[in-house]
Design brief:
Blueprint (H helix, E strand, L loop, with lengths): L9 E3 L1 H9 L3 H7 L3 E3 L1 H9 L11 E2 L5 H14 L3 H16 L2 E3 L3 H10 L3 E3 L1 H10 L5 H13 L11 H7 L5
Parallel strand pairs: 1-2, 1-4, 2-3, 4-5
């Protein structure tokens, strides 16, 4: 990304937000990102757990964008399901799609489904940490420590902090 390109909007799912909140890393997440949004369904899901809306006061609440978003939402609900958990992800994908944003979720099944639909860019927390590293916001050691802190609170990733950069290299995320 050049200086002229704006930071992309990242539309977060509850899986990522709750993981960072559980590990007491919300200030870190805020420092790693510039433009963060969430849907009302995600905010409600986040606050239904042990979290507080104050934890995400800095996250932009993204209003529904009309008919295009409703059509996109219907497609994702059909593919993912309409349970409370699935509805949050469906709203994230629909919101990101109509805004040309990037959806951020750590739900592997939802990610596979959204990528199969091919209308929205989807990544997870590990991608976000690698992006922050590439942008000079975090060094390798700190990125690994964040991964380990998230895993210690129950996040499931394909690698631990020590393996993060070899995992990223194997997926060409450092290029």
């Amino acid at each position: 990304m050049t200086d002229a390109e704006p930071e992309p909007l990242l539309v977060f799912d509850n899986t990522c937000l709750s993981a960072f909140a559980s590990a007491h890393l919300m200030p870190v997440l805020k420092d790693l990102t510039l433009r963060v949004g969430a849907t009302e369904a995600v905010r409600d899901e986040f606050c239904a757990g042990p979290n507080n809306v104050a934890d995400i006061a800095w996250v932009d609440l993204l209003p529904e964008q009309g008919m295009n978003e409703l059509v996109a939402l219907a497609e994702y609900v059909q593919a993912l399901g309409a349970g409370d958990h699935d509805l949050g992800e469906a709203t994230v994908f629909a919101s990101a799609q109509v805004r040309g944003a990037i959806a951020i979720t750590d739900d592997a099944t939802a990610t596979k489904i959204a990528r199969r639909i091919k209308k929205v860019e989807v990544h997870g927390s590990l991608w976000l940490l690698i992006k922050a590293y590439r942008d000079g916001k975090v060094n390798e050691q700190r990125a690994g420590e964040i991964v380990d802190a998230l895993r210690a609170r129950g996040a499931r990733y394909p690698c631990d902090g020590a393996e993060l950069f070899s995992w990223a290299r194997s997926r060409n995320l450092l290029d």
